[in-house]
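Agenda item 2: 2-amino-4-mercapto-butyric acid complex prediction
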Amino acid sequence: MTARPPTFPTSTVLGYPRIGPNRELKRALESYWDGRSTYQDLQGTGRRLREETWRRLDGLGLGALPSGTFSFYDQMLDTAVLLGAVPDRYRGGTDEEAYFAMARGAEGVTPLRMTKWFDTNYHYIVPEIGPDTSFRLDAAKPLSEVREAREHGLETRPVLIGPVTFLLLSQAAPSAPAEFAPLDRLADVLGVYEELLRELAAEGVEWVQLDEPALVTDRTSAELDAVRAAYGRLGSLPERPALFVASYFGDLGDALPALAATPVEAIGLDLVAGGLPGLYAATPGRPTDEAARPGEIPGKLLGKLLAGKTVVAGVVSGRDVWRTDQERALAALLALRDQAGPAAHVVVSTSCSLLHVPYDLDLEPGLDPDVRRRLAFADQKIAEVVELAALLAAAPAGQGTTPTGQGTTPAATRTAGPAPRPALEHASGHTLQPAPVRSPYAVRAAAQAEHLRLPPLPVTTIGSFPQTGELREARARLAAGELDEAAYDDLVRAEIARAVALQEGLGLDVLVHGEPERNDMVQYFAEHLDGFAVTRNGWVQSYGSRCTRPPILFGDVRRPEPITVRWARHAQSLTDKPVKGMLTGPVTIVAWSFVRDDIPLRDVVFQVADAIGDEVRDLEAAGVRVIQVDEPALRELMPLRREDQGAYLEWAVAAYRRATSGAGDHTQIHTHLCYSDADQIVGAIDALDADVTTIESARSGARILDEEAIGDFERGLGPGVYDIHSPRVPSTWEIEVALKAALRVLPADRVWVNPDCGLKTRTYEQVEAALTNLVAAARHLRGDQPS
Ligand SMILES: CN1c2c(nc(N)[nH]c2=O)NC[C@@H]1CNc1ccc(C(=O)N[C@@H](CCC(=O)N[C@@H](CCC(=O)N[C@@H](CCC(=O)O)C(=O)O)C(=O)O)C(=O)O)cc1
Ligand SMILES: N[C@@H](CCS)C(=O)O
Ligand SMILES: [Zn+2]
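Presented output:
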């Protein structure tokens, strides 16, 4: 690096959505996977989307444009490829075959694990690193994107996952010794980053963004040493672009001084989720006059830390859809500029990548104008960034006092959601009443055994059956007014009958209705609850080609009428076997929505819990004997810092119990969790007090079944034995092996046999084959028949 780094333009974003404003990438990927188009076609779509994105950002007036934020599947997977960390079992075919085999599995090879990206509903592919992984630079993607942008006359900043986060989020290869951790390979990985930086410098790239979100979670002193070592080494490379290390989803804490002491030229701070203590005394829910906590940096030291650095200030939230409170955001920027001192340069940015919000509010003309005027999607947020940068540039120095005049500025730069309607139960304290207590588990288990008369190792599924094109199309026609409600209902009833008949025929023990009436397990409930708005095109990528339209929770939540009861009644009328009532839990509904932030999150969740509790009671009254209340996001909503986690788990569990504890002893309550590192929260899962918990474990190496993790968990458990995210059909033998692992730590009367998540993304052909094997494995282990 030369003595003076290039000036960073005054505005930027950390990343942008990539699925396409009309989900063009989703369609291109699925068409390629189905063999309806070629890899060249897919690449063409990628090129068009990247060009459109750069032109869009440039057109909106953004100063510095990112590249490399595009991906055909996931940015962690891209980084594994960049570093040559492709496990041998995926090699042998073309590069794209290896890439998609790691993501989705292929004939004879299971995919890499997939898990949640911090506390978001985005899921990443977990790279596998062992002591023998041979790293080798494959810089094709970052280089070609820089060149591609230049063809359109645009200069970009390559965005990459940083080496420390890459290794901290990777998993040890199965063959690695127990004491091995991927971070042990830091020195080798840094060698590849050095080579990459040299190549980018030779290409004339001025700035590179290295994302290090793992630094906003608790880190050991050894890990902080790794940060110092990594950026000390990369920073001292003579020929390299200027380095911008981005953090997001929280505050850097002790990692800030560690990073600031290295030669990196720019540091990105999330001033919405994190804020700088001392500078931003009031993160949401934190009193403005609170003293710095241990490990926090008082504002006055900030200037010393950041002297000579560029500070990329994330003041526009990349995680919600509310418009930014411009006055507060500007006050935050001014305070930062003053406290960081004249030797620092402040750049306005988003708090994280805009990957987590929909593209453009203009694509959503149907929203209620009262809600709409408070909203900003990705493009509106970019306009906010640009405007704030202009305001900051125009403001004279020395303005960094707050509206309260205390010399500190609140970090909450977002507006509260739309003003809620006159408060109902919330204000009266009703929502905070304790939930009724169910009888002890043993009492309930006896009542349920009598009521349900299930065999040992009962076979069930998680809820959804394949969502056929016919159903999706019918829903689209219903929304467009081209199909009437009655015709749509008939179609849904027929689909329920199909799912029930299939399960009966295959011999499952607890059936489901298949959820054909639902577009999504969260959006469907939001559409039937007061207090939510839903979008027509507000798609956000969840993983690979899969997207959701997170509902917008803007007011007080109420259930005007029963939601699922008529479908549950219909399904149960078709069979004598128990059919599970199927609901989404309060934590998950809130986690996968954009939520109001004018009342504490806990109170929002409690309102939703009460609505779901009403539904539980109505299902039971309708004769439903088993009710599943899914909480796949229980772990996801957990605060990233350990000190905040206990309080969260306490209220999250309380909310779940509010929703479910109205059920009588004979009603069996199930819950389901996926992608959740469930082994880390077994205590909380136990505290949910559900009679049966089905859980993702097929793709996480069944860590929940580790004797230490499972501890004295004393209820029913269904460790997922079939990875539904892969088109692969598991063999009976594989399923038996997985079940035997469960039977080593749990008695047979508490082990359930089920896939690891819903089947909506699979085809009927795959489902029928997989469920046939599931039933065969259970029967064989019960001793009913030979395998
Ligand atoms: C279980 N998971 C979920 C998460 N979050 C949720 N909100 N929901 C979940 O189920 N997080 C963790 C996991 C994994 N994540 C996902 C996320 C998304 C999917 C998925 O399958 N998404 C579908 C879209 C679902 C949907 O909303 N469908 C609608 C609209 C369908 C559609 O595209 N219609 C067409 C027109 C119809 C046609 O002609 O085909 C259109 O609008 O253009 C519906 O069914 O009505 C996806 O395809 O991405 C799975 C797991
Ligand atoms: N009941 C839902 C849970 C997904 S996490 C389903 O089966 O799709
Ligand atoms: Zn699931």
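Discussion summary: The pocket of LYWDKB7T (ligand 1) is lined by residues 121, 467, 469, 472-473, 475-476, 519-522, 542-543, 546-549, 592, 632, 757, 760-761 (CB under 6 Å).
Owner for follow-up: CH.
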